[in-house]
Amino acid sequence: MPKIVNKKTPFKYAAGEVPETYKCQLCGATHVKLWRKYQMFVEDNTLVCAPCLSRLKTTVGFVPKFRDTKYGGRWTKPAGGQESDSIGEFVPAVPTEENDTFWGYSSVPKGGCDWWNKLPNGM
Questions:
Q1: What pLDDT, in 10s, does the model give residues 19-60?
Q2: Per-residue burial over 3-26, b = 16 or more CB atoms within 10 Å of its CB, e = otherwise
Q3: Neighbour tally for 52: CB within 10 Å
């Protein structure tokens, strides 16, 4: 499995940098928003872009719809229209600036949120 972080290559949110290891592990897309599985060790995790995640999460009676907002990408769940930046067990993948792990879903600092929200959705 390819590395999804590399502490030898730190980066800066404010500079708009994107780590070389920050790419979709299914299609190879880079410089776009990525998601990761929630509560997994970084070594066991997978980074996935919105188009690939949409294909992964398509199940009977549930087809997630993705749209761009000023707050970043949002998933719309049918039958209720509830929106979220996560879907199922996948949450926004925001690496630390040290590029040694990912922030916990509810622990991302404002600079990390701003960095992730500015990335294109890849749709």
A1: 999 999 999 999 998 999 988 888 888 999 888 887 776 554
A2: ebbeeeeebebeeeebbeebbbbe
A3: 20
Q: How far apart are CA 83 and CA 100, in angstroms?
A: 30
Task: Round to whole Å and give the CA distance between 61 and 1.
Answer: 32
The amino acid occupying position 97 is E
Structure tokens at 89: 């067990």
Global pTM value: 0.81
3-class secondary-structure state, position 69: strand
53: enclosing H helix or E strand:
helix 50-56
CB 92 within 8 A of CB 84: no
Instruction: Please check whether residue 35 is in contact with residue 60, taking contact to mean a CB–CB distance below 8 angstroms.
Output: no
What is d(CA 115, CA 45) in angstroms, rounded to the nearest whole number?
A: 21
